[in-house]
Amino acid sequence: MENSKQLRSWLDDMELPHPLVIAGPCSAETEEQVLKIAHELKDTDVNYYRAGIWKPRTRPGNFEGVGAIGLKWLQEVKKETGLKTATEVANKTHVDLALEHDVDLLWIGARSTVSPFIVQEIADALKGTDKVVLVKNPVNPDLSLWLGAVERLHKSDIKKLGVIHRGFSSYRKTKYRNIPEWQLAIELQTKFPDLPLINDPSHICGRRDMIFDVSQTALDLNYDGLMIETHIDPDNAWSDAAQQVTPKTLVQIMEDLRIRKVTDQEAEYRSKLGNLRAQIDVIDNQLLDILGKRMEVSDQIGELKKQRNVAVLQTNRWNAILGKMILEGETKGLSEEFVLRMFKAIHQESINHQEKIINA
Question: Contact at 8 Å (CB) between 207 and 190?
Answer without folding.
Answer: no
